[in-house]
Amino acid sequence: MTKQPRFTLAATTLDAPDVRELARFYRELLGWSTRREESDWIELAAPGSGAALSFQTEPRFTRPVWPAGPNDQQMMMHLEIEVDDLPSAVERAIALGAREADFQPQDDVRVLIDPAGHPFCLYVPDGGE
């Protein structure tokens, strides 16, 4: 039998027109530190974990539209970020440069748009506020 190779998800990477602006936003939002930085690539690391969030410059970046119509640039993925206090987390994200999306499909989740246009969700896990 052939040995199954090991797979480990090392990072999720977001494209951006300005890698530094987007990395700064998530570094401050999540409280993560910079693990690696190059001119067009920045990687953030979660404290005490192997998880990473990376950002790369894409000169032809097109902002996704959410919710997207038939001819709009679709979002390809989004981040789900658990928080302990939804109203204050939304307030903090907005202060750092996010905006609240016009369309909110759920009462207990807030969809926000980061400075590059990527949608992300903030939520309190079951049993929270």
Automatic annotation (TrEMBL):
Superkingdom of source: Bacteria
Gene3D superfamilies: 2,3-Dihydroxybiphenyl 1,2-Dioxygenase, domain 1 (3.10.180.10)
The VOC domain, residue ranges: 8-129
Protein known as: VOC family protein
